[in-house]
Amino acid sequence: MKKAAPKKRASKAKVVKKANKPSTGLGRRIWSISWKLGLILFVAVLSYGIYLDQVIARKFEGQKWHLPAQVFSRSMALYPGAAVSHGQLIAELKLLGYRKVANPRQVGEFSASKTRVDLWRRPFLHPKGSQAEQRVMIAFDSQGVSSVTRASDKRQLAVFHLEPVLLDRIITGDGEDRLFVPTAKLPQPIIDSLILVEDRNFYEHHGVSPFAILRAALVNISAGRTVQGGSTLTQQLAKNFFLSSERSLVRKIREALMAIIIDFRYEKDEILEAYLNEVYMGQDKSRGVHGMGLASQFYFGRPIAELTLPQQAFLVAVIKGPSYYNPWRYPERAASRRDLVLRLLMEDGKLSVAQYTAAVESPLGLRSADKPVHQKLPAFFAVVQHELGRRFGDSLLKQSGIKVYTTLDPMAQEAAEKAVKKTMARLGKNDQDLQIGMVVTDKYSAGIAAMVGDKAPGYKGYNRAVEIRRPIGSLIKPFVYATALNQPAKYTLATPLKDQPITLNNGQGKTWSPQNVDKKFRGEVPLLTAFKKSINVPTVNLGMEIGVSSVATTLDKAGWRDKVSEYPSMLLGAVNGSPLMVAQVYQTIADNGHYRRLSSVTDVLDMENNPLPVKRVEQSEALAASTTYLVQYAMTQVVKSGTASRLGRTFPHTTLAGKTGTSNDSRDSWFAGFDERNVAAIWVGRDDNGKTGLYGSSGAMAVYQDFLGIRPPISLRRTPISGVVNGHFDKTTGVAKQAGCENSIALPALAASYHPAKNCGEPLSWWQQLTGG
């Protein structure tokens, strides 16, 4: 019995040992599985982190955004002699958002007296280089600008440019619209208030703030709903840049990981800059407004550097909910949110009590809801896009951040649109199917200054300014007369022309007997009278003398690029064209015979503000300047006492040039004319080619008259041309005479062929014959 005891103990020990074996094995298996799973999870997280890091790097270190192409108007040039009036400059400054004050103290302000404008211009990017802010005094006289003086040193400037108007941004991608503004150019109060409102510990945390998340959770639990978020600015940026707005735990984890990586890789200021240009700030119809730069224009219509403190505070305030705090729909709600931001600035010592009080009492100062953010210029933009494709290639607009500088004159465009609406409403009372096409050019630059393609100018569709082809009627006559006057030995403004019946073969086996509008024949009429009264038969007789082909050549040299059928009927305008084609050839006349192809684009800069290479605009000396001078004179007489005399009576103290045109059966009403600054070509008619009952003077000219009523004209400067003299001619015979002779008329003439008869054309006495006169 005694020997058995140890064996029993051994048996127990053995039993115990056997009992422990399964427990130890299970633990080892669990541990083995756990560390392996942990390793796998670590590798997975690490791999996912590396993947996210690559995604983030591609976005941050590459092109963060596809920036829309910015399309600008022309930059107004001011210099001594510039054809810009005092009122037109002030209108331009108001359009650009300059503030009129008693004494300019900062950029974006101006003051004005009756003959001077004191202007503190903003800095801006001109196609030829950056322009610094500058204060100048601009003086005016009856001819336009008389001087531009720099305030800093009283130096007279040869030329001074205003910044162009940003017309639109062409969005080709995701519908997001933004104007990139570097952090260095953002007002400091915006940065201060953003950090106070959205992320107080932005410069301390590492992308995620656990304390902010805990605080938000406690507040939300207490409120019973979500009233506060715990996301940092870096998390918000990660969500906006890379993630959807889906509410899920997976998305929040991914957002946090990305925020940590972003904070690890990049400086805080770079993160802040990305946020300030990415954050969603509102909705402009189909376009999302992103970033502070664009939001400043969207809400206030001015650059962000010129915003007042309350306006800066509003931009930060609206981030919380652009729709909820829409200032046009909920002004009180928006003001309350703005005031909260201002209070936080005051409590943080960034504002004094007096500054805070003044700020909260100020109005929101929003842009007028009626003032469009984007210019609706369908006709003009169609021409711009076509020209960009022709000169730079179809892929240009897909490039990010390009800047397109155009020839559009915003004030001319506004006047054209108002004139079209006003006149077409009046004319349309008798015919609702009337339509219009209108082109205005800048005489000095040969650029398209304004274009309207429909009686509803904002309608995007058929562009009648470019696409129609209608008989231009009497608008061809200046080119018939220019062809003749270019032969000074045979023709002058006083040359008698036959006004007698004529029958011609029209080239199609049929005869053609042109008629005058009044169905009368006068026997003979002076060339100038036939021109200004637009008498048909003398024009045809003249055209047949000089040759139809010669007239077609003149028209071609002036810029008419469509083929002209050389039949006698073309002498009275049986030539199909558009307002743009008419504007082209009349631009050549207005520019003293110098042909330059009309353009809508002057310069294009890439994302780095480098100019893209482009061929020079086609140009040539089409018509002799001296001959063109005579044609211009004849066109001024059309306005003074011819078919456009009603226009002359409306502007009695302004020298204007013009020509009316009407096609057969009054189907098409045309007018082309110019003052010192602009050339205009206008068509009024029906799309179905039906009769309108309108003449050139009662339809198209009425639009031009209203255009000048809105945009006051500048009188033509009839400066002397080399080779042109003041001649005198017999009213009946057209023979050159000495000044003061009976029955004579004073007219400009080409010096080379002006040889007036001595003694008024009377027989010389024996003494005169002996002494040689």
From TrEMBL:
InterPro entries: Beta-lactam/transpept-like (IPR012338), Glyco_trans_51 (IPR001264), Glycosyltr_51/Transpeptidase (IPR050396), Lysozyme-like_dom_sf (IPR023346), PBP_1b (IPR011813), PBP_transglycosylase (IPR036950), PCN-bd_Tpept (IPR001460), UB2H (IPR028166). One of its GO terms (biological process) is regulation of cell shape. It comes from Shewanella hanedai. Keywords: Antibiotic resistance, Carboxypeptidase, Cell membrane, Cell shape, Cell wall biogenesis/degradation, Glycosyltransferase, Hydrolase, Membrane, Multifunctional enzyme, Peptidoglycan synthesis, Protease, Transferase, Transmembrane, Transmembrane helix. This is Penicillin-binding protein 1B. Pathway: Cell wall biogenesis; peptidoglycan biosynthesis. One of its GO terms (cellular component) is peptidoglycan-based cell wall. Cell wall formation. Synthesis of cross-linked peptidoglycan from the lipid intermediates. The enzyme has a penicillin-insensitive transglycosylase N-terminal domain (formation of linear glycan strands) and a penicillin-sensitive transpeptidase C-terminal domain (cross-linking of the peptide subunits). In the N-terminal section; belongs to the glycosyltransferase 51 family. In the C-terminal section; belongs to the transpeptidase family. The chain crosses the membrane at residues 30-51. Residues 437-693 form the Penicillin-binding protein transpeptidase domain. It holds the Pfam family UB2H. The active site is at E198 (proton donor), S474 (acyl-ester intermediate). Coiled coil: none annotated.
